[in-house]
Structure of Fibronectin type-III domain-containing protein:
Amino acid sequence: SVRTKQQKYRAAFNFGKEIVIKLRTYLKGACTDDKELWSKWILINDSMPMQGDPETSVKDFHCIYYKFETLKCEWKTGKLSNSNYELQYWQDGMPGKKTCDHYLRATGINTGCVFEKEKLQLFSSLFICVTGMPGMNPIRQSYFSFQLQNIGKPGAPEDVNISKTQNGELKLDWRPPIGKIPSHCLEYEIQYKEKTDTWMTITEWRETTYSFNISMPLHELCVHIRAKTNRYCADDGYWSDWSTESCWEEVSPIPEINIKWVYCTGIAAAVLLGIFVIAVLYVVIKKRHWSEKLQHKAKTLVY
């Protein structure tokens, strides 16, 4: 119900249903000794003349405002015969109703509309009527209204990254999705898991960083994130697609090398090598000495 001191009031109605209005007068003040007085109700029933078979009306009509930039409405067709759909729309500030400029089609029938260049307002109701094309068989009209901020779908979060801090925590950070949705109007849902586990979920997160305080040691972790308009900026909305999955894996540290041990090993190896070389030279010299001595003795015996 609405109370007003004016003699005019404007409201939106679904012309596809019966319109019922009740009106009465309320008095209170010096004229009534501060007593509340109510008149009798005046009842007004009205309805728009409906054309076409109910089976011709659209089914499953829905709209999504992608990134707060492009509005796309789609529907399923009813039972048509020599007919096609026309989408009409109006929003406060427009001089009159407009028709869709860019239809989506399937087998020649209009099944959706993309509002490409139209500048639409947030926090202002958009009224839509899907009816029949002029000059064709009539179609039962369908009426819809919504506010764009309540049907927004953000893009997926960008540049998801996991790193390990000096105190051993895993830190997750990302950038808000590209688009016209203000960053303070977004909330995030984070899902994470070890590669062999099921997804764990963190909901209603409003920052673009998150630290995992995990008591058990982890060797690997995978994360993906999605975004939605939060309740402070909209009554409802659609979740974005999930971001690209980002994974972190523990890298085994390279064992530290004991320099003293390396030096000692090197010196020992050099000493052993020197001894080996000396031994080899000694054997060679001895062999040569005995060979010469034997040759000399052999010559003496011959002569």
